[in-house]
Amino acid sequence: VSMTRNKAFSNLKLLFIVSIILFFGTLLYAQEEGKPLVLQEMSWTDVRDYLKTNDMVIIPIASTEQHGPHLPLGTDYYEAIGISKLISARTGVVMAPVLLAGYSEYHSGFPGTLSLKPGTMEQVLFETAEMLIKYGFRRFMFFNYHGGNNIVQQGIIHRINHTTEAIGTSI
C-alpha cells in the first residue's frame, strides 16, 4: 500500500510541475502575442485612436443553452468569446461582444436556455453594426460558435453587404 501511495504521490507531483510549466508558458505566450482589444474594455478615445489605423471588428455570436448536465449554459458563449479574444490578441482587431443569447428555441425544454427569434437577433446585430459604421468601422467579421445561428449570420452579412458601405464576412 505504501509503495502505491508513493507512486500516486509522485505522479501527482509530476502532474503539478507540468501544470505549472504549462500555465506560465501560456502566460508568456499570451504576453508575446499582445492583449486582446475588447470594445467594452476600451474608452471612447481608445476606439477613436484605433479607428485611425484599422476599421475591422470581430463580433462573436453564440448562445446560452444546455450542453448536458455537466457543462455550463454559457459554453458556446465562453468559447466564442475566448477564441475571439485569441484572434484579437494575435491580429490587433477589436472584438465587440454584442449578445449573450442566440437562436436556441429547440433547447427551450432545458431551464436556463435563452433564445432570441432569428429576426430579433439579426435586427439587434444590424443596428449594432449601423452604430459601429457611424463611427468608422467598415469591415465586420462574425465568429459564430453555435450552429443554430447560421441563418442569422447569413442574414446579417447579406444586409451589411447590400445596404451599407461596409463589408460583412464570417471567420
Describe this structure in words.
By secondary structure, the chain is α/β, with parallel strands linked by helices. The protein is 52% helix and 12% strand. The protein has 5 helices and 5 strands, in the order H-E-H-E-H-E-H-E-H-E. The protein has helices at 2-33, 44-51, 75-91, 118-135, 150-163; strands at 37-38, 56-61, 94-95, 139-144, 167-170. The chain has a 5-stranded parallel sheet, sandwiched between helices. Helix 5 links the parallel strand 4 (139-144) and strand 5 (167-170). Helix 4 packs parallel to helix 5 (150-163). The longest helix is centred in the first third of the chain and has 32 residues, at 2-33. The radius of gyration is 20 Å and the shape is flat. The model has no long low-confidence stretch (mean pLDDT 83).
Q: Nutshell version of this structure?
A:
The N and C termini lie far apart (54 Å). The protein is flat.
Give the key terms.
171 residues, alpha/beta, 5-stranded parallel sheet, 5 helices, 52% helix, flat
Chart the SSEs and their pairings.
Elements: H1 2-33, E1 37-38, H2 44-51, E2 56-61, H3 75-91, E3 94-95, H4 118-135, E4 139-144, H5 150-163, E5 167-170
Parallel strand pairs: 1-3, 2-3, 2-4, 4-5
Helix pairs in contact: 4-5
Task: Give the CA-based shape.
Answer: flat
**Spatial strand sequence of the major β-sheet:** 1-3-2-4-5
**Tally of extended strands?**
5
Please indicate the percent range of residues in DSSP E strands (runs of 2 or more): 5-15%
String of helices and strands: HEHEHEHEHE
Oligomer: single chain
The level of helicity is 40-55%
Distance between the termini: 54 Å
Q: State the helix count.
A: 5
What gyration radius follows from the Cα positions, in whole Å?
Answer: 20 Å
Mean pLDDT: 83
Biggest β-sheet description: 5 strands, parallel
Based on secondary structure, the structural category is: alpha/beta
Question: Unreliable runs, pLDDT <50, ≥5 residues?
Answer: none
